[in-house]
Amino acid sequence: MAFNFNWSPLTADAGFYERARDLLTTALNKSPKPPIIVDDIFVTELNLGSVPPDLEILEIGDLAEDRFRGIFKMCYSGDAFLTLATRVQANPLNTYISAKPSFTSPEPLTASSSLTIPLQITLSEIKLSAFIILVFSKQKGLTIVFRNDPLESLKVSSTFDSIQFVRDYLQKTIEMKLRDLIMDELPAIIHRLSLQLWCPDQVPKEDEEAKEESDAAINPLATPPLDAVDAHGHRLDPAEISSLSLDGGPETQSLFSQKNLEKMDALASAHRTSSLLTPNILEVVFRAWAGQSDKPDATATPASTPNLHWTSSYQGSVHTYTFSDNSSQASGHASSRPTLVSMGSATTGLSLGSGRHSKAGRKKKMRVVNLRSKTAASEPVSEIGSTSSQAGDSHSEASTRTPMSEPVIPTTIREVPENDLAASQSKVRFRPPTDATTSARASESSGPRAAVPSVPVTAQPSRAASPQEHVYTRQPSMFPSSPAPQTSAQEMPPSYSSRVSQKAESTASIYADAKGQQQQFQQQQQQWGRAGPQPDMSSVILEQAWITKIAGEIARRVYDEKNRNPAFWEDSHQHDIPPPAYEPR
Amino acid sequence: MREFMNYITNAFYGATGWNEDNKYNELNATSRELIDFPLSRGLRLTLSSLATPHFATSYQLGSVGVVDGSISYLHSSIPLTHIAAQSDKIPLPALLRCYRRLHDLRSPGQQHYILDADPLSGLPPSPQSARALLGAASDAAVAGGALDGGDTDQDPGIHTHSLLYGRLYLPKSLLEGMIIKRFTQALQVQVRAVSEQSLRNGGTILGLVQYDKGKYGLEGLYSTDGGLLGFRGLYNFGGDASSSTCDPWTPTPGENSNNNNNNNNNNGHAQAGEKERIYGRFSVGGELYYGTLNKSGGMSLGARFATLPAHRGTPLTATLTINPLMGNINATYALLAREYCSLATRVDFNVYSYESEWAVGMELWSNRRPAGFLLGASPSNDFEPEPYPPKKKERSFQAKMEWRLDDPEPEPEPEPTPKTRKNDEYKGVLKARLDNNLRMGLLWEGRAKSLIFSIGTGIDLHKLGEPFRSLGLEVQYSS
């Protein structure tokens, strides 16, 4: 196999340099220039030289009709050179003044008078040495990655060569810029060009793909929305989610598009000024829109992410989604039970946020206490975020310990009660209204916003996966401990029993927890679907009253059923009878 | 056009007796305003109000493609009762005039603002005209203090006034704030701040300490942007500044009893006579900047000669500034050719790059109605006739019947009165500029009913096919 690179015909073409110069000139002048450059940048000379680069094939990993992967070594020490000409502003005060708002300008008289100097920069003796990984596929275009810093040396000569300081500065700056250009910009440009060449249909589609991907891929990151659904609105299996999370590891970065990061940055910096700007970030539900519930969180979040680097934004997003941790937890448990390996996968997603969780959880505890004094009307919604995140909190602790032998569990339970108490307190408080809103709005909110992926309000989730049961059995530990009066007394004994014997799956507790889970799903959904407006007082009171009634009724029915047919309960219930609370009305 | 808030701020300076022109960066203010006047762009409406003597508001709505606007509020601790804020009474010269007369160094309290409003050359304005222009001639507190015969600086309350100003530009969410605080008669501190998202650190703050001793004015500044430190100074000599009574804060005995302008100027005449026809004042100054964070700096030196208001000939101002670091030499020359016409030229030359620039500017005042001004022929051509109303009158019917001439008309009133009346009659001003790139700027500003209009356009004479670079209309109403 041989490759034939034509270097000289490239240069032999008379019109080539002309075109290349024009292209470069327009490319250089396209972006807004810094104020120090007062004229257009012209490429006056361009020569690729006569010495071709040396190319060495180190490895070919994949070779087919439509794809190629290989590693090359490239060396170049030719006589190519490039000359740029422009005019620069030599008075630093002038550039300083021109970039500032006039109101706070010191308004110098003539100290800022301009002095423009023509500048000519020649880049020559370019030495490159790089290991290039080249991946080509017809679908994804051409991707080039430099494994090392390709630029070995470069000679920058300019009009100011006689001034040592300026020369050094230019040399340094241009080398740095060029490195950035080659390492970051060039692969992107090549990729884009290749896409246009081979698969022009991919270019506009990229957004859609990214959307789909993020729909599916955000979920595994310990931050799945509770109603994890695919594009068609079908609910995703938790196992599926966890499998997604497996390969999501290194690519998490791609989940947060650069554009969104920039917007988040703009949003964060907007808090520091009086800017009213609220950038429109794709695929994100703003807390302000999600209802009053999250206001405390929303105020806390910017403080924790003042500066949106990649990592912090990632954490921030974990934070944002914490209320949905339960289901990811569920998936984590689901897979962690049978094998340790998948457990690891589940925790990778979680462990990233867990350190943060503990902190946030502590803060939230405070907030829960504060909120308790508020009216019941605002509480049902306002506590969900904190509660469920706490639930996630305690869960994450629990989940990390799950693989250990069973006897350990009681100790873990002993360790968490503080968390549990706080969580359960708030939980109990919001649960009845949750139920109320759930049932009351089940019909109304059957068609939530188009923007929000929705779960049809059916029994699907509850029978989605049997492993979930295991999770649910754990939950009672916090559920029954709640001192709230709304919890029906009938429910207590079974849940206690479930706590004592972790394995014994008392149906009531399953039921209750499945219900809780589902309630959270729906609550979530409504939170998104409702987009802000708080139900007015009267309806809330009505709902609450109705809810307590329904809750009692449900608990009673569950208890009866369980008493009647304890053995048959699980199967029959899971496959045939949807939980009463989710019966479509 | 000076913005309403600028006008109010100037009124504040006037009320507190601060001479805002006695600093280095106002050295060539006259030619700068005559040549570099801002052209309005797009459509802009301003509603302003001096709601109480202490409080002013201004709302602005503009449209240059996109609609934007601003809301601004201003609070002054000194009552601004002596100015006319209604747009049908506001003296246009105070708002629009570019040629800046020198302010008397010796009575910083009352005089300069009136002079600013007075467009007349040579002759001192009568106190009545000044009063007519500006309402009360001087602020009650200041005048009271002066008329009592006591030194104005005996009353500390006058000099510890402050001004607060804030402005929010809406779609941009750019917030401007300014505090001006007077500490003593000679010391004033200004803090300006801008908050905007796109700026580094979300905004900048500029602090200015101004010290004005009449004979010299010093200014120190610090900007948080780049940690810029600056120092400016201006020193006056010659003319009134070098006279024995030049110490601004020890008024001559004659002044104590009578504080009006006439007296001052009479004094000035007397001194000028003694000084053997030195009717001008020299000022020299310099500025120095150093950015502590970006390690860059700049400086310039400047000198100015300007005729005093007492000068009987053509008032003129000439400046020369040099930037030795950048090799820039800048010379300007401005004169008030007629009371309705000012001219200015400017030449820039750089000794390092041999780049040079020139620009000329002028302003023409018109006392005719704006519509006629706009629809008529070129204003500069037929401006000459009828500075006064036609004096020839038809013989009256009665006289004709009796076969005799009319009774001789009473002599026209003494000079000042018709002139001041004419001041009031000024309806608009045309400003024009031209530079070496053959770019022209035209701006007409004037009053129609109780609205103040400003219509401007930029013209590029190089591209005569599509000469209009910009077009703008500004309408201002204040109450």
Automatic annotation (TrEMBL), chain A:
Main location: membrane
Location of the protein in the cell: Membrane; Mitochondrion outer membrane
Topological relation to the membrane, as annotated: Multi-pass membrane protein
Bias (Basic residues) ranges: 356-367
The UniProt record lists the keyword RNA-binding: no
Domain SMP-LTD: 1-195
Region (Disordered): 325-535, 566-585
Family designation: Belongs to the MDM34 family.
Subunit structure: Component of the ER-mitochondria encounter structure (ERMES) or MDM complex, composed of MMM1, MDM10, MDM12 and.
Official protein name in the record: Mitochondrial distribution and morphology protein 34
The organism of origin for this protein: Neurospora intermedia
TrEMBL record, chain B:
One Pfam family cited in the UniProt record for this chain: MDM10
Bias-annotated ranges (Basic and acidic residues): 389-407, 416-427
Protein's membrane topology: Multi-pass membrane protein
Compartments it resides in: Mitochondrion outer membrane
Principal subcellular localization: mitochondrion
Family indicated by similarity: Belongs to the MDM10 family.
Assembly and oligomerization: Component of the ER-mitochondria encounter structure (ERMES) or MDM complex, composed of MMM1, MDM10, MDM12 and MDM34. Associates with the mitochondrial outer membrane sorting assembly machinery SAM(core) complex.
HAMAP family the UniProt entry points to: Mdm10
Record function comment: Component of the ERMES/MDM complex, which serves as a molecular tether to connect the endoplasmic reticulum and mitochondria. Components of this complex are involved in the control of mitochondrial shape and protein biogenesis and may function in phospholipid exchange. MDM10 is involved in the late assembly steps of the general translocase of the mitochondrial outer membrane (TOM complex). Functions in the TOM40-specific route of the assembly of outer membrane beta-barrel proteins, including the association of TOM40 with the receptor TOM22 and small TOM proteins.
Name this protein carries in UniProt: Mitochondrial distribution and morphology protein 10
Native source organism of the sequence: Neurospora intermedia
Gene, per the UniProt record: MDM10
